[in-house]
Amino acid sequence: xxxxxIDTATKTAGVALLADERILAEYFFDLPVNHSETVLPAVHRxxxxxxxxxxxxxxIALTVGPGSFTGLRIGASTVKGxxxxxxxxxxxxxxxxxxxxxxxxxxxxxCPLLDARKGEVYAGLYRADAxxxxxxxxxxxxxxxxxxxxxxxxxxxxxGDGLAAAAGLIxxxxxxxxxxxxxxxxSIRASSVALIGRRKKQRGETLDxxxxxxxxxxxxxxxxxxxxxx
Length: 230
Prior knowledge:
By secondary structure, this protein is of the alpha/beta class. It folds into two domains: 2-95 and 188-226, Nucleotidyltransferase, domain 5 (2-Layer Sandwich), CATH 3.30.420.40; 96-185, ATPase, nucleotide binding domain (Nucleotidyltransferase, domain 5), CATH 3.30.420. Helices cover 29% and strands 28% of the residues. The protein has helices at 39-49, 69-86, 95-100, 145-148, 163-171, 190-202, 221-226; strands spanning 2-7, 13-19, 22-29, 59-63, 90-93, 109-117, 120-128, 134-143, 156-159, 178-180. Strands 3-2-1-4-5 form a five-stranded mixed beta sheet, sandwiched between helices. The protein has a five-stranded mixed beta sheet with strand order 8-7-6-9-10. Strand 1 (2-7) and strand 2 form a beta hairpin. The longest helix is centred in the middle third of the chain and has 18 residues, at 69-86. The model is unreliable at 221-226 (pLDDT under 50).
């Protein structure tokens, strides 16, 4: 199965093209430009280099949140445009689950943290399952690091751009049960989105594009200030 994966949920962005579990092409961007300037060109270039067109894609996987309001909207509109034009099924992948995939070799609890601003983080807790995929052990939430850290017991690995917001509290944990990944594994990889997406497709967990909206976990500034729908 040819899977196209797109991630625009955070300040980084990514595109991956897979044939079954084989990564044909993968792009990662951490640039001060709008994701719309990088993602579609990467989609087209990846397909071109693989000798394919968008019609050859059998599944599109997308990070659906939590994350940046603007980033999530860019991803959703991009994928809806591609999928509605071709009839390709779409699966949604949790941003935190995709990030936790970087650490599935770790035997303890995996705690991905994303910067939610305003002194808060988007957080989840996962353990690797028997197939090497993240399995949630706590519902994803947006909260202060002080509300999240007491829930992380025992051997734990922390990762993500929310580490800075939680650094003081994490530093208070015993060093022998507190673990981190190197810098190159601190961001979401679109190939992880694709692999999780394939699994969700096998379970029949596809999105209805007519009703789908990203998972923001919190209200937008417009909703807070004016009661407008995000």
